Amino acid sequence: MQRFLLAVDTLNTFIGKLFAWTIVILTLAICYEVFCRYVLRAPTTWAYDASYMLYGTLFMMAGAYTLARNGHVRGDFLYRSWPVKRQALVDLILYFLFYFPGIIALIYSGWQYFYLSFLLNEHSSFSPDGPMIWPFKGLIPITGVLMFLQGVVEVVRCTIALRTGQWPERLHDVEEMEKMILEDAANKSDAEAIGRGSL
Amino acid sequence: HAQASVKLKFQSTWPNKDIFHEFAGDFVRYVNTMAGGRVELELLAAGAVVPAFQVADAVSSGIIDGGHGVSAYWYGKNKAFSLFGTAPAFGWDADELMGWIRYGGGQALYDELVQGILKLNVVGLLTGPMPGQPLGWFKNPITSPDQLKGLKYRTVGLAADLNKELGVAVTILPGGEIVPAMDRGLIDGAEFNNPSSDLVLGFPDVSKVYMVRSYHQALECFEVLFNKAKFDGLPKDVQAIIRGAADAASSDMMWKAQDRYSKDLEVLKSRGVKVMPTPEPVLQAQLNAWDKVIANLSADPFFKKVIDSQMAWAKRVVGFRLEYEPDSAMAYNHFFKKA
Amino acid sequence: MFLSDPALGILMLVLFIVFLMLGFPIAFTLMALGVGFGYVTRGDTVFQLFVQRTYSVMANDVLISIPLFLFMGYVVERANILDRLFRSIQLAAGWVPGSLAVATLITCAMFATATGIVGAVVTLMGLLAFPAMLRAGYDTRLAAGVVCAGGCLGILIPPSVMLILYGATAGVSVVKLYAAAFLPGLMLAGLYTAYVIIIAMIFPSRAPKLPPQERAGSVFEVAWALATSFFPLAVLISAVLGAIVFGLATPSEAAAVGALGAVLLALAYRSFSVDKMKESVFLTARASAMVCWLFVGSAVFSAVFALLGGQQVVENFVLSLNLSPVGFLLLTQAIIFVLGWPLEWTEIIVIFLPIFLPLLDNFGIDPIFFGVLVGLNLQTSFLSPPVAMAPFYLKGVAPKHVTIDQIFAGVMPFLAIVILSMALLYLFPEIALWLPSALYG
Ligand code: NA
Ligand code: NA
Known about the structure:
The structure holds three protein chains of three kinds.
Chain A: H1 2-20, H2 22-38, H3 47-61, H4 63-68, H5 84-119, H6 134-164, H7 177-195
Chain B: E1 6-12, H1 19-34, E2 39-44, H2 55-60, E3 66-69, H3 94-103, H4 106-117, E4 122-130, E5 136-138, E6 152-154, H5 158-165, E7 169-171, H6 175-183, E8 189-190, H7 195-201, H8 203-206, E9 209-212, E10 220-227, H9 228-232, H10 236-270, E11 274-277, H11 280-297, H12 301-324, H13 328-336
Parallel strand pairs in B: 1-2, 1-3, 6-7, 6-8, 9-11
Antiparallel strand pairs in B: 3-10, 4-10, 5-8, 5-9
Chain C: H1 5-20, H2 26-42, H3 45-58, H4 65-77, H5 82-92, H6 99-115, H7 118-135, H8 140-152, H9 161-170, H10 174-202, H11 219-245, H12 251-268, H13 274-308, H14 310-320, H15 325-339, H16 345-356, H17 367-383, H18 389-397, H19 404-427, H20 430-440
The structure holds sodium ion (2 copies).
Transmembrane segments (chain C): 7-37, 57-76, 88-106, 112-130, 142-166, 178-203, 224-248, 254-272, 284-308, 328-356, 368-394, 406-428
Domain TRAP C4-dicarboxylate transport system permease DctM subunit (chain C): 13-431
GO cellular component, one term (chain C): plasma membrane
């Protein structure tokens, strides 16, 4: 079980990080378009389609990764002050009540949506040479599956927290600046407290 | 009042203040009054449930029960879709396109595309013929086809393919973004549809050159969509009422457009807009480009089948009109252009 | 069914506010309510609706600039520019009363504008400027207020992600919003600075002068410090903003060029590495996913809300109050202000604003003007207790003797200045509307 959890975490983190690099491609693609349009006076026909596809790919494929990092914003002004066991219980119930039904819909209906587009060999309607659009639509069910797997992992995390009263550690990863600084500051004051023998 | 009323959600694809949204509202009003409460369409604002370009998918999957738009919007699914709205300029007008749909085999071809090839779960009523559309709004007058090369220009449907053949860099922008984009010089030219819409969307604020008479969209009509299961489930007489309402709204729209478009063109002029005809070399280049677009896309057998049917109709019907009708310019000039 | 569709719509909204407090990720709470209520009333077509709304967020061309601006922000943030920036501005401002506080405000405003990341600015300045002010004998509350208020300016001063979200939600031009928010942003920063200078002049003990040895040596030294830190960042910000406002590029184009510029700038400072690039890329992906999934959730929520006719009920209710346009403005801004206590600005914009926006037309209120008022108002959501990110971040890095109450007390005058700015903006709408009308007619 533990190995499955880690495998899913690692898989989603890997996929999220891999597709995170689309931001670099997006930056370069748009800069190239800017160069073509303003310097060469010959705008590309693909920049518009390429830019929303890269942007859409970026955030969809990072959805499960963000969940694995507990990065989806919560209205946590009450939640924050709850004991871990209560947090875990509420989360556990809501994963089944709120999360899985929607994600299953995303997989099932997303597949139908993609499959119809695939059968039609649907192209983008945004330009006369619009690129194929069905691979992009295919990201919806794929994302759904990744989110489903990550949801299972989060459910198990909740059950562990329910038993132990402690949230299990997440994979180590890069953090927001404020979080790193705050953790540093907290560690330092702990260290000082230890130094003074009060802990 | 034995029968319960069926309430249908009906979403337009037009900006709220656009006269097109008003036309959608007119159709809804006809249905609701004529059906005496047995069916009730609720008109939703554009984007309320789904964005404009997703209305066909949404009607097909039953998310909304109906929608009001143009077939050119779905041309990413199949370029032939655009033929049932903004077809090539064979010299016919939108009213003659409606004639083809009714009596030239157009509706059967449309149904074959929508229900047969694309497997969409929709019933489509083609309605509301529009007059020819302006080439659009520019920073400087377009005097030759060369001026179009490399120009960043907004249009839709097969007109996009046509302009690509002319060397235009076609951009598709959402309706509300056309004017700000032009103001900032992001696009050098743009067209939407007609004087009333163009006035409301704010084109005269950003450009003073309005090139009219163009072959890129010499004709177009609206498309009213209903979810097929929902529509087939209605009593036969209610279905007939909806079809009748589409025809009634269609005629009413033509008459209303005569009034509003002509008035609003004067308003545009009074705001310092220079209204200029598209020069003949550009028109000729457009016709030549239509040849290429038709040749390219006719590789698809269904596209070719529709084009052949349209050309046969236009050849006969327009030929008849030209042979049969007197020249309206001569009479007009006799009465209104006296020295 | 016991309830009519519109009643269900209102119930859905109320339940959302209740469930919001359970602390579950908001995107999925919205998704669940939208899909759930949609299923009860419309059957399984709601699953297709959910998928299509998801797709509409994926293909939304306004939101493209969000990851790009976030990327630019993370690169600037990780390039260790802040130290130099603060020191050079501090040198240049040495002669002004309350110079350290003024330098802090200017640094915050600039850095927050370039990065748009409030938390990073407050914590970094909390480590850098806050202790410097305390050492110089500044009043703790004043110093705390300056860091917190300055750190939030980035959400208003363009290029701001907040305005892109507003533009995408309200369907108004992001470009015009930028032009409209520019002067009000400067006004707010100017009022903060004026307040600090006045306090320093009236109560020199709260913001004492720097000892001479800490002031600049020569004009050359100051000029060099500014040329190597202040100007490169200023050029980057002005280029991005200028390109957008003067119509040379779309927001996403300017953002992409800005991101590339930030990478070059970081390389020029020799403070960029493969690791920092990776960090920026990964954080961009997570932050983009956070914002865009919120849009996905709210897209299905608001579509079902519209299908149920909930919007109509809200509209009829508000219209039945017979409010004047002023009354409507006051009511909506008060609601946004109160929502800002427990919530953060993303949720307010993505979830609650769509309910007010369709009403603007009835009262003849310009959505661009309204957007700038909202932008000012949302400054308070970071600052006002009980949930105030900026004071919490500062508390986390501040010396132990600084209490959260001191920080909140220090923030209060700045909250008052925000409200004063809103009043000024209401009385003189030209502050927001002049620039867009001068630029775009
Ligand atoms: Na058009
Ligand atoms: Na708050």
